[in-house]
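thread from #wetlab-drylab

HS: before we spend reagent money on co-crystallization trials with nicotinamide-adenine-dinucleotide, can we at least see a predicted complex? here's what I'd submit
DV: go for it
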Amino acid sequence: MSSARPPVLRIGIAGAVRGGGFLSSLRAQADRARLETVYDPDHEVRDGFAAQNGAARVASSFDELLEHCDVVVLSSPQQHHVPQAVEALARGVHVLSEVPAAVSLEQAQALVGAVRGSTAQYAMAENYCYTRPNLIVREMVREGLFGDIYYGEGEYLHEMRSWHTRPDGSPTWRYHWQVGRDGHTYPTHSLGPLLWWTNDRVVAVSCHGTGRHTDPEHTLQDSTVTLARTAAGRLLSIRFDLLSNRPELMDYYAIQGTGGAYEAPRTSDGVPVVHLTGRTAHDTWEPLESFAEQFLPAAYRNPPDDGGHWGSDAWPLRDFLDAVTAGTRPEIDLYTALDWSLPAMAAEASIAANGAWVPVPDPRFFTAGIGVDPGPEAPLA
Ligand SMILES: NC(=O)c1ccc[n+]([C@@H]2O[C@H](COP(=O)([O-])OP(=O)(O)OC[C@H]3O[C@@H](n4cnc5c(N)ncnc54)[C@H](O)[C@@H]3O)[C@@H](O)[C@H]2O)c1
């Protein structure tokens, strides 16, 4: 890739299903970015995506995709994120990865080495941080309205049994990577917002399961609960369930601090509420929405109408392009992405050890990439 950037960034999309979730955001960035090319190993899928969305070209390999883009969105199945990021970063192509960042410790280490050795930027597109309620709560936490936060909860409950096999019964990637392992195989939607709000990271987890009841052929237990201890001493409790019979609840969060509490709704007819000591009447809640005018940052007020996941899909690509254009560090950078992804590996080890507390490594101390020409990530001095 030439060092002179073209005035309009060429965007490549790898994985043409979830890749569609970035398009409304991309259309809103037309002055500085355009959909150049798409790759998906399924040629019907990639041809259809390109025709429907006006991609300038269709790539028949990931390598070919990289030849024609400045920024690649990795919306491929999760086990491909790191191998593809490593290849892209080695070629100086900026990477916006879907979640999670990595599926094993080895992958996490490889990613650290690749980012440290590249002059290109890396970020993870954790869209759930950018829902309207989560953006409001983040500012309220930063302003100290909840006081000293010592407890948080997250839940991702999404009955996906029909997604694990194709109509002919053959397994999809989710069969292996989401329900073919035990513990918490998809952690970032629940952990990301809680850790982003509090600027904290998980240092150890203890993961427990209910046993296998609804679709017992899978290794993943029906519900798992991961207790997490953070660097600042907070306790988090995260429930994860891809199998149980129930309506979905993918964006439940709660926090408790010395100054009050936040509760997301658990059912579709509820609203997010807060209780703030000294402001909210004793034993009552007030709607979070009443704080929107004061606390929702202007930059996130107007997502495009077709922004998916409650409007949150509008922002990760926009914010990443800001970082790429300005040469600044993305907010959900390499280390943050891994802080939110590595607890899955520790949870898998914990549940296999009957809930034993398992430490979560700090990726800042990985040695991969030390000794290579430094990129924007400073290796350990
Ligand atoms: N952030 C979110 O809200 C959100 C939502 C859905 C999915 N995801 C993530 O997006 C990723 C894709 O999920 P999905 O729902 O689109 O899965 P999917 O199974 O519906 O589609 C995956 C697509 O990727 C293609 N593919 C397979 N191998 C590939 C490769 N090596 N390179 C490029 N494309 C490849 C497949 O042919 C298929 O078209 C996963 O990592 C998932 O965790 C995130």
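DV: The pocket of nicotinamide-adenine-dinucleotide is lined by residues 14-18, 39-42, 45, 62, 75-78, 80, 98-99, 127, 172-173, 309 (CB under 6 Å).
HS: ok that's useful, forwarding to the group
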